[in-house]
Specification:
Elements: E1 6-10, H1 15-31, E2 34-41, H2 43-53, H3 57-75, E3 84-90, H4 93-103, E4 108-112, H5 120-132, E5 138-141, E6 156-158
Parallel strand pairs: 1-2, 1-4, 2-3, 4-5
Antiparallel strand pairs: 5-6
Length: about 170
């Protein structure tokens, strides 16, 4: 396995992303890698955000950036001396993850699947298919079970497949 220099953890402020952040930080601490925390404001959510708060685009990005900083500080333990980059972007979550992976030359993406949809398997299948097309491995943790404890399924490390395209 190649040396980990940059680890990407997408953050949506959920319990699952807090768990993924913890795993990403542990890996970054062990390997000396930089951790990049990415939060994506999707267009439909941005419209809701604007309609309820009537803020400018820059103000909403600043507010989400502060929220991301607070989330990391409240979730992580002992981040002193660690290199953590916070990124807030606008767009499609999957496309922004792919773009950040390419732009930042990411070595590993750390995710935790969510179990929030009635047909969650279909949503997760779409995410799995997309993640296999990324140019770096993806570490997936299983979804959190109903009692807030991680499911007993093993962690999954997806390796990139060069013949698939990012869509």
């Amino acid at each position: 396995m190649r040396k980990l220099e940059k680890i990407l953890v997408p953050i949506d402020f959920s319990q699952e992303s807090a768990s993924a952040l913890g795993r990403g930080l542990a890996l970054a601490r062990e390997t000396g890698a930089e951790l990049i925390a990415l939060h994506v404001i999707e267009p439909r959510r941005l419209r809701e955000y604007f309609s309820s708060y009537l803020e400018s685009r820059e103000a909403s990005l600043r507010a989400k950036s502060r929220a991301l900083t607070n989330f990391i500080e409240n979730t992580a333990q002992d981040i002193n001396g660690m290199k953590i980059t916070k990124r807030v972007t606008l767009g499609s979550r999957l496309k922004e993850i792919a773009a950040t992976t390419q732009e930042e030359n990411i070595d590993l993406v750390v995710l935790k699947l969510r179990k929030r949809f009635p047909l969650g398997g279909l949503a997760n299948f779409r995410i799995l298919r997309f993640m296999r097309a990324l140019p770096c491995p993806v570490l997936l943790d299983p979804p959190i079970a109903g009692d807030k404890v991680a499911a007993k399924t093993p962690h999954l490390l997806l390796q990139p497949t060069p013949e698939e395209n990012i869509a």
